[in-house]
Design brief:
NosL; 21% strand; 11 strands; TAT_signal; N2O_reductase_NosL; four-stranded mixed sheet; 197 residues; four-stranded antiparallel sheet
Length: 197
């Protein structure tokens, strides 16, 4: 992971660090093909881009207006989202909504989160808070089973402490070295993980 360069000119209240990793699409598809339960499901489902005015289905905040991890969950039924996947402003909202939906009998077919190994991210410093940019285009998402998330790092999201996902192990290691936190497979996130954030 690229370290922030304090000499880089930035907007008044933020620092930005562009970075790009080209994802090996075949490898990602291969990992996705072994997806099973807990929202990893059907391989024919692809992520969608999130509209600029789309509200988070969990908390109601406009997804594109806030920093950090973005998510979407595709369900076996289309309700109550009206024929689109459920869409979220944070990983916390993504998992909370999915867990609640599962408890009410709905079946998640695929869960997607921002893949910070695959986007040009910006790092923002506001006061003592460190945040990553959000990305709402379909290409920014990766299927949950292909991701490792970092919990309890210094980086926060739209809802405060959040999970930061990566598909590349080297990016996970660099992120933890710079921002702290604990890495875990995204498929192992449960309610206790969210409560410990």
């Amino acid at each position: 992971m690229t370290k922030r360069d304090p000499s880089t000119p930035t907007p008044a209240s933020s620092k930005s660090v562009p970075r790009r990793r080209v994802l090996a699409g075949i490898a990602a598809a291969g990992i996705g093909s072994v997806a099973g339960c807990a929202g990893g499901g059907s391989n024919s489902i692809a992520p969608v881009s999130i509209d600029d005015d789309q509200a988070c289905d969990q908390c109601g905040m406009i997804v594109a207006d806030h920093p950090g991890t973005v998510g979407q969950v595709h369900f076996e039924d289309d309700e109550p989202e009206g024929g689109r996947p459920a869409q979220f402003c944070s990983a916390t909202c993504t998992y909370t909504y999915r867990f609640d939906a599962e408890d009410s009998g709905r079946t998640p077919l695929a869960t997607f989160l921002t893949d910070y190994s695959a986007v040009d991210q910006e790092v923002f410093e506001e006061g003592s808070d460190t945040m990553f940019s959000s990305h709402v285009d379909s290409e920014a998402f990766a299927r949950e089973p292909s991701l490792t998330v970092v919990a309890r790092s210094e980086v926060i999201g739209a809802m405060g402490p959040d999970l930061i996902p990566f598909s590349e192990e080297g990016d996970v290691e660099s992120f933890v070295a710079e921002y702290g936190g604990e890495a875990m497979p995204a498929t192992e996130v449960d309610r206790a993980t969210l409560e410990a954030l």
